[in-house]
User: What shape does this take?
Amino acid sequence: MRTVTDDRKFKFTDTRLEAWRPTEGEVYLHDTERPNLLLRISPKGAKTFYFCRTDRSGKTAKQRVGPLGEWTVEQARARVDVLNGQTVEAGGAVPKRDRPSTHTLGDAFADYITFREGEGGRSVYQQRRMYALYLERFAHVLMDEIDEVWVERNIKHAVARGDGLDERRKALRRSGGTYTANNVLVLFRAVYARYLKVNKLKGKRANPCVDVPLYPTSRREECMSPEEIKRFLAAIDTFKREHCVFKHTRPGRGMFKGQPIESRIALADVLFCCVTLGQRRGAVAGMRWTDLRLNGDDPTWRIPPIKGNKSRKWKTIHLPPKAVELLRERRQRSGDGEYVFPGARGTAKVKDPRKVYHKILVIAGIDNPHLTIHDLRAAFVTLGVVKGKTTEAIAAAVGHDSPDTTTEHYVRLSKAQKRSVTHEISAAMFEEEAA
Assistant: This one.
């Protein structure tokens, strides 16, 4: 902790401060009349008043008041009194609503994520991960000090550049990080909105993220071709044979270090259901035995609302024979547990299949680092379109409320498929003309 010598701690006067000359580097002077008032003297002699305070975590934060010359000592003290929650003129406390908040970004996010967990949100894990990667380094910043310029500089542009990330993570980002920057901006906007609501500041203070525009983005075109889907399904079987069988070596080595074999099998089965049912990862991972009807002529799966279901309505999915066969095998393996895909080490359900997913992509020979697990849903929809199914039928199969959602976000035809459609339609025209 920095000690303050007696010659740097005295009663401020304009004359004494103007006469002070720095002798070594940067110097901070402390006012005995207002312990929170500092004067910073830069190595070049610039003198600026600062308000110093300590947040809940014990970290010291400084807030700029103004330069000496433009601000007198009395004006600086009056400003510090206001920032400190007291006014000398009135001789009493400022109303609580006018006091500066001591909430930091870390405090605001902790409250927000607790609220989201209680609400049963779908993306709590992803939001925690985004915060850890891009926002946690600003956890000490006071919410009152965040403005539009700060958001644009430290969140929008910094995340797009990949500040704080290693080279491997930077290489995996799409479109130079603009997609990620937009997602972090949306998260921060929600955190700030929650902070305004909890502290009853809504309508009194603007959300600084509202006027920060998102980066323009293009429609996602990444999608597995029908041939790649077949290779992906075959690679799942290969993965189970090669990485989910106990050998005479220490289990759980390499990229699956510490991961039980049963957990790897469950994660591979989650991916199988994602691609064969066209459902989201979160919905499949949260599949319960009580929601399945595997007997009878029409096996079904009812997806409950909230978790893994954006529309918050029950959805009925008709199960194909291959999926029914896999689920019946899992019933024999998993016993009487609640979840179809139980997690490792006593957790209720599997957590994150991305390591297994990327390993299966390597086995399948699919060299596209930008393909995500959610793109399996798009592959299911696109294959249905290629096979001539209507968008209404596909929307019902995947659980979309509107066929427009299916068409706008999930149909991703390749250049070869688009060219084939054009040629076939043109050929049909000439055939009719010849007839």
